[in-house]
Amino acid sequence: MAGSITIALAGNPNSGKTTLFNALTGARHSVGNWPGVTVEKKEGKLKYRDNEIIVVDLPGTYSLSPYSIEEIIARNYIVEDLPDVVVNIVDASNIERNLYLSMQLIELGKPVVIALNMMDIAEKRGIKIDCKKLSEQLGVPVVPIVATKEEGVDDLLNIVVNLVKGGIPYNPKQIDFGKEIEGKIEKTIEKLKDMSGLEKYNLRWLALKVLEEDEAVLKLLGMNLKTKTEDEIAVTNEISLEDDFEALIADKRYSYIAEIVSKTVKKPKNKELTMSDRVDKILTNRWLGLPIFALIMYGVFYFTFDLVGNKLLDMIDVFFAETLSGWVTGLLESVGAAEWLKSLIVDGIIGGVGGVLVFLPNIVCLFLAISILEDSGYMARVAFIMDRAMRKIGLSGKAFIPMILGFGCNVPAIMGTRTLEDENDRLTAILINPFISCSARLPVYTLFAAAFFPGKENKVVFSLYILGILIAIIVGLIFKKTLFKSDITPFVMELPPYRIPTLKDTLLHVWERVKGFLIKAGTLIFGASIVLWFILGYNFSGPVELTESFGAAIGRLFAPIFAPLGFGNWQATLSLITGVLAKEVVVSNMSIIYGLAEEPSAVAFAQALGQSFTQLTAYAFMVFVLLYTPCIATVGIIKRETNSWKWTGFSVAYQFAVAWFVSMIVFQVGRLLGF
Known about the structure:
Elements: E1 3-11, H1 17-25, E2 42-48, E3 51-57, H2 69-80, E4 85-91, H3 95-107, E5 112-117, H4 119-124, E6 128-129, H5 131-138, E7 142-144, H6 153-164, H7 179-193, H8 203-211, H9 215-225, H10 230-241, H11 245-264, E8 265-266, H12 275-283, H13 289-307, H14 309-334, H15 339-357, H16 360-376, H17 378-385, H18 387-391, H19 400-405, H20 410-415, H21 423-432, H22 442-452, H23 457-481, H24 503-522, H25 524-535, E9 538-539, E10 542-543, H26 550-558, H27 570-578, H28 584-593, H29 602-609, H30 615-627, H31 632-642, H32 645-672
Parallel strand pairs: 1-3, 1-4, 4-5, 5-7
Antiparallel strand pairs: 2-3, 6-8, 9-10
Helix pairs in contact: 3-11, 5-11, 7-8, 13-16, 13-23, 14-15, 14-16, 15-25, 15-28, 16-24, 21-23, 22-23, 22-29, 22-30, 23-30, 24-25, 25-28, 26-27, 27-28, 30-32, 31-32
């Protein structure tokens, strides 16, 4: 093998980095038609011309003076980890804005190749780019590509390998910032030359960052300055703080970019409204935006339940209720299996795991609908639509983007809060995000809605999702008025063009999410089902009746807590306790408790649950599941993202309290109204 080459993929949010990453490596990471999909760096490998190429997909960033966590991740990797080449993905349809990051990457002194992506969209808009001339103006290779169709990817790899091997010239052009600033740059460079530990950095770039008062660079230099004299420290501070060089330098960059674009890019003179602009006049309308969003979300749940989901659910019902359980029971009896083993497999595993998998069709339908909305570009508009509502609680619409991710799973949603620059905003978003109903809660809703609200499942589940959003907003308002007072961060967001989702990308998104659900069913839920089978069938005396088991004793111990909520029975209590592991375990637990292993179907569930719940208590129970302590994985990610046991413990405790209070209000008010 000729050698190893490390490529860093850098670019603005929504420029197509992850799409190119997947095209290069054959990976299947989620891509989306909205900013902020990548919040951690991802790594993949490929072989090309006897070279092992390591590709690192970095979070999107608009500049190398980072303000949010994911931007810091991107900058630190390029500056500190020293990749062999940086491939800068540039959106050809928004080239002028994208080139600002390009200029900063070139200033770093690292080898840069520009991948001019979305050339097909640029051509449709009548934008013509002279790639050869653009390359000459910048002094770096420029390769036109269409990452979604994998066009130009091989040419890009060829250029990258040749550049690293020295097969093509690399002479990046340097911006002339003018006599005054260039003089300051030279003066700063002379000071930097006397410092130790800066060998791997480009001194001109460091000088620019000092003049821009980049906090990370000033901190780096401050560590080295400790060994210098007070006079030298004063001189460096004088250089960096004398004028507003950040604005002056940025202005020079934009002027330079505008000059290059004028020479290399031709745009149509009569700019007409694009299709996206015309659609946005309706979908993002001040008065129509929110009602349309609510209508679309209602349509999602109509599709998930009435139109498709429940019809497929009936087919899965037949498989588990009439085929699998009977076949396995017969097989075990034919080989003379012990009663405890038969009970473990049929009652515990099939009853627990099968009780969750019955609802797979609804989950697939929900993921499919959300993936289509994401890929079409609509979900990016939702953040814009919600900006006015979010500002009333002291947050910007940008904080709503992680909340949208929460419809799939709260774990990546909480990680998505890294896009928020203000630490108070970020902590608020982390603490309210678990109120957004994730897909793991859907089996619980589906179970209870089918049992107690037949024919109205979509309306009931829709009401829960809306309630979750409202509670998140109300709690966020309380937090911003008390714990996390700060100014509202301005919200500026580029709206991506509407696109028709490709079948490949949509199915990939659905599969990635469904795969996670199936893995959870085969691991966590499988293990939990075995434990539940044991604690529901045994006590210290050995095998016992269900009501005398460990599980029943645990449930009875805590049941009084839930009596004011209307479901103070041990079955519901134990299900909620085990649901902290994963919300699907609530369904597994009830399947085993109500003896549904022989027929783990929605119909059997409905009949069994009628013994312990009414319509009112069933709805109160669903409200509690919506709002109470998130699953163990979410608790773990809250600890990681806050780096604080205090906030993690606070999150668990206050969410339980909110769930208890709201569920109690639902039950008590409902009872007063005669429900």
